Amino acid sequence: MSKDLSSNLGSISTEPAAASKKEYGATESVPHSAARNMSFWDMLATWVGANANNGTWYIGGVMAGLAFGGAIAVTLIANPIAYIFMALVGYMGYKAGTSTMALTRPSFGIRGSKLPSVINLTSFVGWTAVNTFIAAISISFLLKDVLGWPAFGEKGSVKSMAVGILIMSVLHLVSISLGHRSVKMIERVGMILIAVLGIWETIVVLQHVSFSQILSWHPAASASLPFGVAMDTMAAFSLAWIPAIAEFTRYTKRKSSATVAPMIGANVGLFWFAFVGIIATIASAVASGVFDPNTSDPSTIASKLGLGWLAMLVIILTSTTANAVNLMAAGITLTNLSKKIKPMVALWVSTIGAVLLTFVPLFFGTFLDSFISFLDYLGMVLGPLIGIMVTDFFIVRKRHYDAPAFEEVNGKYWYSGGFYWAGLIAWAIGVVAYYFLHNAEFLKVSVGATYPVLILSGLLYWLFTRIHK
């Protein structure tokens, strides 16, 4: 065998291995080869792990302001709708092979896509901070048991919370150390542990307070939550996952892995942990006679119900599985803003940014106020964005994007100086519409503003593209 032929065969044999280990930037299209290494079960595990987390428990506790029946109704209505849209965007990522923010280039322009990218970056860094803060609360309770330090909510608890935030940040760095490959491994292990411990937590909660007591409990009028407001909160919570979906579906080989698997995993993970959050918060209110959404975080509820250190470890674990997805999305989004930043560097930068942001609720306002304001912001910007993206791909472009053109200056997605005003104007109108409709009384008590504005934005975008022609 000649030296040249041996060299060629050697390069061919190493290409699949190199492709499977590569972390692709935002606009790089993942080829249908060994690089597509996430199976149906990997996607299922990823999205169960992403949704079965402490943030979902917390949002379930906030929903308890509707009483049990109303909280379950909102969960069964708002979230499946969001995850249908997630499956649609997942399919877009599967087809084009690029990240979610790269998929905004046809509908906003190559330069115009930087605006949703900045918002997406802040969103996922923010989500990482939310989950990290809740997990740090658990660590503060563990530190109280072991070292006697004040736990969250007690005077002098800043020290234990700071240590908890730093511990969680180290775990997050480990979870994204190999990019999507380490995330895949974390989620495989995490789904099994979450399943076992989540069932245990559900059983223990129901042992403290009977299910009939939970069903009959109602909050005081001053603490009740309007149905439409709850719809907006839940919709924003679930829609926030959509800008992360293509970061993973671009690595799948089959359409079902990109659509069906994440939709099933997300719905199962979210409903399960929202259910635990709902019943745990109501159980705590029944036992103590006090319902306060500010103390519906998993750690405080687990402590009140005496669930012990194992429950705290569950909360810490679920933060790691959820934030692996959050950080992956944030890092790859950063590469859509600048190709000079390599994917792995972007993941580390995003993680450090999230660490700094996590300290904010310790010094400014209550965590609940920060959390609800954050969700209002997400609902306002993400609903219109997703409506436009789905309309562009499935209706305007007839399910076809030219991924190589995502980088072409003066190419088909360059439009007017890199901006596509049809998308940007439709998005701006959607954001303004949400701002005014969010507090409209008839929507606050019915369906909320998020989904009506999502539909409105998609319709406006379609009309603007027709005019543009």
UniProtKB/TrEMBL annotation:
It is a multi-pass membrane protein. Its main location: membrane. The chain crosses the membrane at residues 66-94, 115-141, 161-179, 191-211, 223-242, 263-287, 307-333, 345-368, 374-396, 417-437, 443-464. It is found in: Membrane. GO terms for molecular function: cytosine transmembrane transporter activity. Pfam families: Transp_cyt_pur. One of its GO terms (cellular component) is plasma membrane. Keywords: Membrane, Transmembrane, Transmembrane helix, Transport. Belongs to the purine-cytosine permease (2.A.39) family. This is Cytosine permease.
